[in-house]
Amino acid sequence: MNFEVAPIVDATFGARVTGLKLTEIDKATFADLYQTWLEYALLIFPGQHLSNDEQTAFAKRFGELEFDLVPISNVRKDGSVRPEDDDMIKLLKGNMGWHHDSTYVPIQAKGAVFTAHVVPSSGGATGWADMRAAYDALDATMRERIADLSAFHSLRHSQAKIGHTAKKGGDYAGYGLDQDPPLRPLVKTHPETQRKSLLIGRHAYGIVGLAEDESEALLQELVDFACQPPRTHYHHWEPGDAVVWDNRRLMHQATPWPMHEPRIMYHARIAGDRLSEFAAPA
Fold first, then answer.
1. CATH value at residue 103
2. Residue bearing the bigger pLDDT, 150 or 281
């Protein structure tokens, strides 16, 4: 391979990749990189300093995009820091719960490319959790218990749990908040590796066939079990860093930072394959 791969030594997934520029990858090198991505699920590329157009172009090599590049930021277009009651701040705080992207729309995302432009003086790391390793670590009794269970997924529901209902007419468009909740299995088979993993997180609720309190308790038990070392890794950002992760295998979460300080990240979301990622809305 035309690049160096350093696996994250204290986690069940993830690697730092060096020795290449993401803007100058030929087809053969990208094929190797794609297989490395499937193997490690999270690839970290230090010091790439991608422009928005370069990030979009790189993300498109993994497949069609679910939506155009968007800022994940507490900074408005005019450069001012958003106040605590801003809808985007509430979305950012919601993202501090473990989740998969786009489980609350009919087609779950395949993955994402994320870049750091401005980072705060402290905090603001992003964490990932390996749902394949979590499934593998479950005992036989739990595997049998959850094998045929499904839960609804809703961004509106998960935001309501932290007291957030988006204001109409705000500058956050409300992507996903207006969706009817799809029903997804708790155990997912990866379409490319054929390995099983858990599909849970903050958007999941209302397991079919269970009482509300029993459902909530089981989902929380699974998250608490899954999201602990060595199945987690936190990346502390430097400006210019880029990462790509497999949303079909990993959950992720933001972590707190002093929100009077700017944090500017950009997110390109890779669309899922309808054949493997579709779930009908309720």
1. 3.60.130.10
2. 150
